[in-house]
Amino acid sequence: ILVSCLSARVDASDLFTIHSISIDFEANDANAARKLALGDGQVRALKALLKKLTLDTDHGRLPVVEESRLGEFVQGFEIANEQRSERRYLADLTVRFKPYAVRALLRAADIPFAESASPPIIVLPIFQRAGTTNLWDDPNPWRDAWYRFEAQEGLVDLVVPIGELADLAAINSVQALNGDRAALREFGGRHGAEEALVTVAKLEFDPSGTPSVDVTAQMYGSVVGPIRVERFSGTPDGSVEALLHDSVS
């Protein structure tokens, strides 16, 4: 559900993507040249990303990542303008990197880095089951699933409040469900966020005991985003925790 809600924002920020790295290699045959070119291009793209995120004064001590470790950092890549001959391979390479892995690499090297200045998104996960609605009360396994997702440091900066007394006083489940923009704006501002994602998970079980969850999500900020609705089905022997975790991402 997160991807469908935030895809436009993620594409716009594009912080951990390096575009149009030119690659050009010769080898005994075109396939060998392609393999060498892709490896070299990804190494160069990672170097470019590390420089993009850090100060000029730290570029001389940036960590060096061997080609054999690229899988730890590369999320995917795209190839454009591909050309090949018997022994030569040319293309333009766009590489997407794993944000959490790149951050960990720089932190391990004790190198400060800067990311997008855009404010985080605050998430209000509401859990419904058997006629009950929980935002701050326990149990709320939907909120727990978002906590775990937040800890993974994905493509967007998410804040999932822990439900302090000030949070409880600022907004309740009824206000969140009704899209009370004044309450959402004030609540988000307390946490440094300009946008709020209200997401509801309604858990049900069929006669065989198989769980399913209906998820709705809507973004509130300077404009109100469209309502996203998706259903996720579990398995008879699967856990509710795993189903909710899969539903987040």
From TrEMBL:
InterPro entries: DUF2066. Pfam families: DUF2066 (PF09839). This is DUF2066 domain-containing protein. It comes from marine metagenome.
